[in-house]
TrEMBL record:
Keywords linked to the UniProt accession: Glycosyltransferase, Transferase
GO molecular function list: glycosyltransferase activity
Biological source species: Pedobacter ginsenosidimutans
Official protein name in the record: Uracil phosphoribosyltransferase
Signal peptide: none
Residue stretches making up the Phosphoribosyltransferase domain: 10-211
Gene3D superfamilies: 3.40.50.2020
């Protein structure tokens, strides 16, 4: 299942347009806020697919039957670029526990790269719904590696993957390796550079949010 925001008429497309805009990107706070807003939008859409339980709620004037989430999902992200997107999800799923993964591209002298995963901090994921957020789904290699590591450790009930921008290659790689995952994407771009950056994409999300790496 793939949900593509760009195929819908939604205010979320305004957030995506501003995330891509090279002039608006100069305002790091605005960039982070738009990524956070997009996370909130995805949380609302994902919430429609989750399980609910009827709960009796006492008001000052009586009792009301309300449907509430049966179980909060766990919100995971890949440091550091994914933090604003995860925060948006957390604003909506405000009782959720969080998982953090340190993974990055380790570039070889040839220019090729491998995905290096150094660190995972996670709550118990047994039987839980997991939402993995990363702003860019380029090759899909880091996403697949991180999700598979968690799947190997725990019996996860349901996997949702959230990204602001994805490439067609990245989507294909995720679908081939994580066929049960549900994808929630802001837009899907056709091209990638020789260094595996999405075109037109939006650039380096981590640098735009928090400053350039050295």
């Amino acid at each position: 299942m793939i949900f593509d925001v760009s195929k819908t008429k939604s205010i979320a497309n305004t957030f995506i347009a501003e995330l891509r805009d090279e002039n608006i990107q100069k305002d790091s706070m605005r960039f982070r806020k738009n990524m956070e807003r997009l996370g909130e939008f995805f949380a609302y859409e994902i919430s429609k697919s989750l399980e609910y339980t009827v709960q009796e709620t006492v008001t000052p004037l009586g009792v009301s039957s309300c449907e509430v989430l049966t179980q909060q999902p766990v919100l995971a992200t890949i440091l550091r670029a994914g933090l604003p997107l995860q925060q948006g999800l957390l604003n909506i799923f405000d009782k959720a526990e969080c998982c953090f993964i340190s993974a990055y591209r380790k570039v070889k002298k040839s220019g090729d790269f491998v995905i290096q995963m150094d660190y995972i901090s996670t709550p118990d994921l047994e039987g839980k719904v997991l939402i993995m957020a990363d702003p860019m789904l380029a090759t899909g290699q880091s996403m697949v590696m991180c999700c598979k590591e968690l799947i190997n450790r725990y019996k996860i009930a349901e996997l949702h993957i959230v990204a602001a921008i994805a490439s067609t290659e990245g989507v294909a790689h995720v679908r081939a390796n994580l066929p049960k995952a549900k994808l929630w994407l802001g837009a899907i771009d056709e091209e990638m550079t020789s260094k595996s950056y999405i075109v037109p994409g939006l650039g380096d999300a981590g640098d735009l949010a928090y400053g350039e790496k050295v």
